[in-house]
Amino acid sequence: MSGGFVLEPNGRVLLRLEPVERMLMLSLCEQIIELVSPEDTDPDADPLAVAVGIDEQAWTPEDPVLLRLFPEAYTEDPAASSDFRRFTERDLRQTKLKHAQTVRDGLERSGEKVLLPLSLGPSWLGFMNDVRLALGERIGIDDDFHEEVAELPEDDPRLAMVGVYDWLTYLQDSLVQIMLP
Q1: CA 152, CA 14: separation in Å to the nearest integer?
Q2: Strands, E, within 55-178: which ranges?
Q3: Contact of 138 with 65, CB cutoff 8 Å
Q4: Residue 74 in contact with residue 10, Cβ under 8 Å?
Q5: 5 forms bridges with which residues in the sheet?
Q6: How far apart are CA 77 and CA 158, in angstroms?
Q7: Which residues contact residue 14 at a Cβ distance below 8 angstroms, ignoring those fewer than 6 apart?
Q8: C or N terminus of the chain, fewer CB within 10 Å?
Q9: Residue 141's pLDDT is what?
Q10: Quick one: pLDDT at residue 152?
Q11: What are phi and psi of 124, to 5 degrees?
């Protein structure tokens, strides 16, 4: 297993990945890219609204993972929440997409040794956070989940996802420790 992110004396960040870890991370990048990519803009939409990233209509996602990544801003006021979504969701999607693409590009340019400038740390952190949120929603992580994990049978498919979730948590923490002042 990877030893986490390490700050090198030259100020670059190093992550050593086993081939299977690198392939897993690339797969997660592609899945997040597919999940968060904004829908194409309506060709008849107001050009000014398109230029500033405002959608004419925005819908609350039915997929619980998308709802976790793009939560309701005002749970008590559906109209205000819808307006907020119209003005912000496209930009949020673009940011999440950019984070995943940055990680994918870094992984594709490297082998088992990933070197990145400290300035790309926030993109890697954002990407790992998005994957952890998505995984957490899919496998049902809540306050009592770790107690439930101990009770899961060995053939439960969620165990593999829990392993990935924990690995990403470890990687994320190792990078946060580097990014702290």
Answers
A1: 35
A2: 113-117
A3: yes
A4: no
A5: 15
A6: 35
A7: 5, 6, 7, 8, 113, 114, 115
A8: C
A9: 87
A10: 84
A11: -65, -40
- pTM (two decimals): 0.89
Two tokens at 66? Answer: 């998308």
* CB burial of residue 25 (10 Å; 0-12, 13-18, 19+): buried
Burial level of 157, CB count in 10 A (0-12/13-18/19+)?
exposed
Mean pLDDT of the chain: 90
Ordered strands of the 12-16 beta sheet = 5-7, 12-16, 113-117
| CB distance 118 to 47 below 8 Å | no
Residue owning tokens 């976790």: 68
Per residue in 105-148, pLDDT (tens digit) is 999 999 889 999 999 999 999 999 999 999 999 998 887 787 78
- Residue among 58, 57, 68 at smallest CA distance from 35: 68
User: How does DSSP assign 92-117, residue by residue?
Assistant: HHHHHHHHHHHHHHHHHT-SSEEEEE
CA neighbours closer than 13 Å in the CB half-sphere of residue 62: 0
In which element (H, E) is residue 33 found?
Answer: helix 19-36
